[in-house]
């Protein structure tokens, strides 16, 4: 019996190639691949075209150089892009490193379908013969052509030259980083432990015939990536998609965080945590989950400068079952506004906010039970706010009161994203060398502006998904140099992307993105 054909098999390759080539031109003009694909209307060609686009981006250094060798004069941009998509499929290594979504095509099929794609484009039809000749020449002379271009680092590593140089400057094992960037990332989940245990979710996956294993405290790595919407419990918020390296943030910040003696004496008192660059909320929800399972009463402000992305934080929190915590956040903000009226208690007095609501997700909250259970249950609330983290005066009064201080602060700063290239193969082509300077300035500014909000004894976790020292250890060293009241707790942690090779003592396990962490404490 034949199984039903996948959309890729039903859609001619040339239709998928034409769409992927259009996407490639979008990336060339500075658009992100994710945005490009999101804007494509649903069609049977879409999944295959996306796989082709991402595959070509992984080989773009190489195929661009090949197009330059094969075409004496620059062809029309759509023809150039089609040649790039075709050559990425014809490369000798394409068979071994193509994503599962791409079937392996015979070279003559690729040539034929590229010619078809050119012919079906009215204005380009005349170039069909030229495209056919280029691709056949590549098949005849590939060894010579590949050897000719191989000495260029942009070709050898499929990264811009400045990027290869920056890694060489920063890391002895720069080649391993580049190799990992070109490998495919696993699908890693973080189980929503406020709803159920990791073991219980592993059992659900097993029942569904999905092979997976545990990573870190609450993570799961799947043997084969698949559409997350098809995994059990997605809509009910059973898990989030989050790389293992990013799953270190919540435990690093909250583990070992102590309430002040005054807070310990106040049974309803919550620890105040700012997630300063929070969208789309991957770490915000982890803070809540971690607090729920460790019974830490937490009041989180999830702040982001981008209103559209703030909406995604709320959406994600609702999917994960944090509706009650969001309601509690709103109620608390109202309380604070009232408290600002002259007759009310001082703004940063805990009593001005009233008793925090029990705000665990509805699915996880046990029914009203014994008093001791109720006392033990973590009280949690979260507020999503659009605002510039570098201008606390605009959002601080409403949430913290005019002079209120934070117990903890997560600064997941905007960065080059150079650590997550294996998931986003377009990033390396979209960034410019000068972007790193601008990002480093923003990171330093955010650190300096947010630090005064922390109480003595409070903690700030600075992180970036970058592997460049300019965005990691350098701003932190500089900050420690200029802030005598800041102490580094433990060592800075520069995680490098790995592709599944066992690495002794790596706190994020064997297969994760690149990430940087530094935990600072304000001296009392
Ligand atoms: C690395 S992403 C954060 C990822 C998020 N923490 C998570 O785990 O899902 C950086 C975020 O910083 C935000 N951002 C950039 N500049 C900002 C600023 N000045 N104030 C607040 N947010 C900012 C961006 O909009 C972006 O959403």
Automatic annotation (TrEMBL):
S-adenosyl-L-methionine binds at residues 277-283, 304, 412. Transmembrane segments: none annotated. Coiled coil: none annotated. The active site is at residue 465. Residues 177-523 form the SAM-dependent MTase RsmB/NOP-type domain. Gene3D superfamilies: NusB-like, Sun protein, domain 3, Vaccinia Virus protein VP39. GO terms for molecular function: RNA binding; rRNA (cytosine-C5-)-methyltransferase activity. Residues 337-372 are annotated as: Disordered. Keywords: Methyltransferase, RNA-binding, S-adenosyl-L-methionine, Transferase. Residues 350-372 have a biased composition (Low complexity). It holds the Pfam family RsmF-B_ferredox. GO terms for cellular component: cytosol. InterPro entries: MeTrfase_RsmB-F_NOP2_cat, MeTrfase_RsmB-F_NOP2_dom, NusB-like_sf, RCMT, RsmB-like_ferredoxin, SAM-dependent_MTases_sf. GO terms for biological process: rRNA base methylation. Belongs to the class I-like SAM-binding methyltransferase superfamily. RsmB/NOP family. This is 16S rRNA (Cytosine(967)-C(5))-methyltransferase RsmB. It comes from Allofranklinella schreckenbergeri.
